[in-house]
């Protein structure tokens, strides 16, 4: 089974905004055609209705483990769950015995949890921080001439334009039209 972070990174550029707020109740698994449908909330829903996104067999296989034992309003991909999985994996792979002082700290944390707990849903900053950390980590091992430059979320529209084969990405077209209008 893929962990939450791996699934997120595989589908990162595809529809990160929709997946960040995916709730269990937003996925319709009852249709008879074998497809599941995800109906995200969107800003024009009141004008044009819902836009169901079909989920085929590969998507169903990836999402199904995250739907088990969850209520309709819970997040399919939750930072809380991801962090709990990560901590459990680290604890299981620990090579040294847990010290008594660590056990005492764990007991104190159970009684009085830290105010900075992971949220139930990913937000717009989650992706920015995750990608920036991955680039920083990757650049430590890459030669200087192959390092990845600083990344920011607004580069997605340019990525989509280049992937479609546009010779002039959207932002450049808009800048060009503004420049032409001034002359």
> Proportion of β residues?
under 5%
Q: Counting H and I runs of at least 4 residues, what is the number of helices?
A: 9
User: Low-confidence parts lasting 5 or more residues at pLDDT below 50?
Assistant: 1-14, 168-183
Structural class: mainly alpha
User: Quick one: how many beta strands?
Assistant: 3
Oligomer: single chain
Distance between the termini: 58 Å
Radius of gyration: 21 Å
Q: What percentage of residues falls in helices of 4 or more residues?
A: 40-55%
Lateral arrangement of strands in the main beta sheet: 1-2-3
What does the average pLDDT come to?
76
SSE sequence, one letter per element: HHEEHEHHHHHH
Q: Please describe the biggest sheet, giving its number of strands, its sense, and whether it closes into a barrel.
A: 3 strands, antiparallel
**Global morphology:** extended
């Amino acid at each position: 089974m893929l962990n939450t972070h791996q699934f997120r990174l595989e589908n990162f550029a595809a529809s990160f905004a929709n997946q960040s707020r995916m709730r269990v109740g937003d996925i319709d698994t009852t249709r008879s055609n074998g497809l599941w449908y995800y109906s995200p909330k969107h800003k024009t829903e009141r004008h044009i209705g819902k836009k169901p996104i079909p989920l085929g067999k590969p998507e169903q296989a990836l999402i199904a483990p995250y739907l088990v034992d969850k209520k309709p309003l819970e997040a399919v991909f939750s930072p809380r769950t991801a962090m709990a999985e990560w901590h459990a994996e680290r604890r299981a792979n620990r090579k040294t015995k847990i010290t008594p002082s660590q056990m005492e700290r764990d007991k104190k944390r159970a009684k009085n949890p830290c105010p900075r707990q992971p949220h139930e849903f990913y937000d717009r900053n989650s992706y920015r921080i995750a990608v920036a950390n991955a680039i920083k980590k990757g650049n430590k091992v890459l030669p200087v001439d192959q390092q990845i430059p600083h990344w920011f979320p607004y580069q997605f529209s340019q990525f989509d334009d280049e992937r479609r084969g546009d010779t002039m990405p959207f932002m450049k077209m808009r800048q060009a039209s503004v420049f032409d209008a001034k002359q």
